[in-house]
Amino acid sequence: MIRLFLDSEWANDALRELVILSLVSEDGEHVFYTERDPLSGVRSSFVRESVYPLLNRGQAALTDQAMTHALRSFLQPLGDCEIFADASLDFSMLHRVWNGCDRSPPSAPYRTRLAREGMLMQRLERYFEVNPIEAARRHHALVDAVAFRSAWLDEQARKSLS
Would you say the pTM of this structure is higher than 0.90? Predict the structure, then answer.
């Protein structure tokens, strides 16, 4: 089974409109990254100052319908997946994109797991401490998904040594 690490960013806490969604596989071979187009006009100052400047735009910027198609095209060939995130709202964003506007979307080929156990969150912070270039791009969903993947791999290595 393929493990994927998820991160997303949303425009504001009240409306929770998706800005970015990213997934990266445990082996780093499978990467999904998309940005919503158009972006929400109602955004928090944090998003305006910390997230929007990091966006790639270009081919990554997709309409809601195109995002749904791209996510399904990415996940379906992978088969049964387990998707990890450090916040449950990331799963909400993932499900919204997967379901799209379909009245009866296809069954999702993934299970979700909220992962915050052990020293995982401390390892995530440590990743950014030792990777200052990545720390400067924190809150870019792909950067954060890669960091979460790295922290999870470090935590698994620690557990196997115990």
Answer: yes
